[in-house]
Amino acid sequence: MVSNLNPRVREVYARLWRYVLPHKLIGLIAVVAMATTAVVELSMVALVKPLMDDTLVAHNLDTARWIPFAFVAVFVCRGVAGVATEWSLGWIGRKVISDLRRDVFRKFLTLPSRFIETHSTGPMLSRMTYNVEMVAESVTTVVTVMVRDLLTVIAAIGLMLYQSERLFLFVAVLLPIIALLILLLGKAFRRYSGHIQDTVGEVAQVTDEVLTGNRVVKIFGGYDYEMERLIEVDDSNRKQNLKLIRSRAMGVAMTQIIFGVGVAGVVYAAGIESLNGNLSPGTFMSFFGAMMLMLQPLRRITNINAVLQRGIAAGDSLFGIIDEPDEVNSGTHSPESIRGDVEFRYVCFGYNDDDSTVLKDVSLNIAAGRTIAIVGHSGSGKTTLASLLPRFYDADAGEILLDGRPVQDYELSNLRSHISFVSQDIVLFNDSIENNLAYGQLRHCSRSQILQAAEAAHIIDFVKDMPNGFETNVGDRGVLLSGGQRQRIAIGRALLKNAPVLILDEATSSLDTKSERRIQEALEQLMADRTTLVIAHRLSTVENADQIIVLDQGSIIESGTHKELLETKGHYEALYKMQFSNESTPG
Ligand SMILES: Nc1ncnc2c1ncn2[C@@H]1O[C@H](COP(=O)(O)OP(=O)(O)OP(=O)(O)O)[C@@H](O)[C@H]1O
Ligand SMILES: [Mg+2]
Fold it and tell me: Which residues of the chain are in CATH 1.20.1560.10 domains?
């Protein structure tokens, strides 16, 4: 069955095996148990001959005495072997699921940001749930069928040959026809399975969006639209499944019809043989029993291609993810601590290769401990600029230096350990306030450090009114908190990290003026002795920066201190005047 597979499929198949092979001992138990089942089933059929010929026809008492015990023994063996098969294959199947799931998850943790941004979440999620299950089911079913059913078929053939070679000729003609049928069906199965898993991913995508965007759906009346989207992907899923079911059922029916023709041939030949006195009733019954015993295994063998192809289609997309390159992490420089000199030299960057560049020849220099502010219109590239420093993306041209060394020289997690970050879109995890504050490597912070950061970020102000205090759960992405509360937790987290380089991207944009002013004081204390990159639309928050740069369409168009820029009477002054007049307008 494997020989006709194309190289890609064979590779997936071989890799799936690598997940099974380490479990040799359990595998051995499974094989022994399945072989026992095959032999036991055949013994049952073999027992029919002495039962008929010796007991019922020749009235042999000895045989009549032992045959009932033999049947009991056979059923006990069958039960024990059945339990052993189920357990061992189940064990291997669950282990394969865990291993694959962990490998995929590990990959999700290290994939480049750009890959994650350009791929939908739904299919990623369904890989973790649907695909791994499909692979495991496929592996265990294939193993069962290939071992137990194939052995049963072989043993049945052996028994038939032993009972009557002539009758067996009728069966022998059929086997190649059935084999051909199995091969032909395989291709269709794989195609449908690939389509099915795509649609499972789409269903997950639509569902995820409806749940996260439920307020938008409600207020903008997206009910019908979303329902239609779901019906579309769900219908396509149902149709693909039906196609698979149809070809599987057809395959099984055709095998059985072919088999039926064989049965007719055997019965016809048996009549002639028996007339000639060459066939006892016991031999015929035993032969016929062996033939019937082949029916179920053959049926499963016809089906096995559907299961195998589903596993291969699922495995293919899992390995597709596992093979994606990680973030480039070839740097080895891992200093304990850094001073915090940051320099951008002629940095160019675009999100897509064919994109007009988002940053053009940006050069700036921040001496350790200094604060630089970046201002500019929405979409001018401020966030992009900041995200190059922790290497969420790598610059297309130019260099970014930390303490005089290109950021690529640093080991990636070491580089990031020196940088604290409050991003524009706050991300909180579905966990307690405390665990969101002391997240990741901050887990080891002491209680007093956590309290100190919470105090500075004015988190205590709202936590003290909550019944569960720091243990309060913030909900998915922090939905149970207000925007300002979320932002304060993000600031607290950044303060707690206490890294020499600090990036604040609209860190106080959701706060009211009073809270902003108070947090600003805390931040300014913090900024005093570390390198800080502040991005803000509200210019009042950046007035005290050592240097302010104005970004426009990815280029620096002005730079200087607040005072200098006002004197220049350029873009900054215009922006400032506009905000000043807005703020002084009553209301
Ligand atoms: N992940 C991304 N993939 C592709 N393009 C992006 C991505 N993020 C931003 N862009 C594009 O890059 C440009 C600069 O975006 P950026 O987020 O840096 O602007 P910004 O100055 O931070 O704006 P704002 O003040 O609104 O936050 C925009 O044109 C935007 O469409
Ligand atoms: Mg931004």
Answer: 7-322
Ligand with minimal distance to 380 CA: 1
The residue among 306, 305, 294, 1 whose CA lies nearest residue 149 is 294
Those residues whose beta carbon sits under 5 angstroms from the ion ligand 2 are: 383, 424
- By CB atoms closer than 10 A (0-12, 13-18, 19+), residue 448 is exposed
Nearest ligand to residue 378 Cα: 1
CATH 3.40.50.300 in the chain, residue ranges: 339-418+501-508+527-587, 426-498
pLDDT of 582 > 70? The answer is: no
Contacts (Cβ under 8 Å, ≥6 apart) of 377: 552
Contact 219, 168 (CB under 8 A): no
Average pLDDT over residues 380-406: 94
**Which atom of ligand 1 sits closest to the CA of residue 386?**
18
Is the overall model pTM greater than 0.70, yes or no? yes
Please tell me if the CB atom of residue 358 comes closer than 6 angstroms to any atom of ligand 1: yes
**Of 3.40.50.10990, 1.25.40.180, 3.40.710.10, 3.40.50.300, which CATH number belongs to 339-418+501-508+527-587?**
3.40.50.300
Is domain 426-498 in CATH 2.60.40.420, yes or no? Answer: no
What distance in angstroms lies between residue 380's CA and the mean position of ligand 2's atoms? Answer: 8
358 in helix, strand or coil?
coil
Q: What is the mean pLDDT of the chain?
A: 87
Residues whose CB falls within 8 Å of the CB of residue 158, separated by 6 or more in sequence, listed in order: none
pLDDT(503) > 80: yes
- Residue identifier of the C-alpha nearest atom 3 of ligand 1: 351
The answer, yes or no, to whether any atom of ligand 1 lies below 6 A from the CB of 117, is yes
- 66 vs 91, higher pLDDT: 91
Model confidence at 1: pLDDT above 50: no
What's the CA-to-centroid distance between 363 and ligand 1, angstroms? 19
Distance in angstroms (rounded) separating the CA atoms of residues 476 and 216? 17
Residue 509 CA to residue 345 CA, distance in Å, equals 29
Q: By percentage, how much of the chain surpasses pLDDT 70?
A: 97
Mutate to test the pocket of ligand 1, among 383, 505, 552 (most ligand atoms within 8 A of CB): 383
AA identity, residue 479: V
- The per-residue b/e assignment along 279-292, b for 16 or more CB within 10 angstroms, e otherwise, is bbebbbbbbbbbbe
**At residue 585, does pLDDT exceed 60?**
no
CATH of domain 7-322: 1.20.1560.10
Q: Is the CB of 357 under 6 A from ligand 1?
A: no
Ligand lying closest to the C-alpha of residue 356: 1
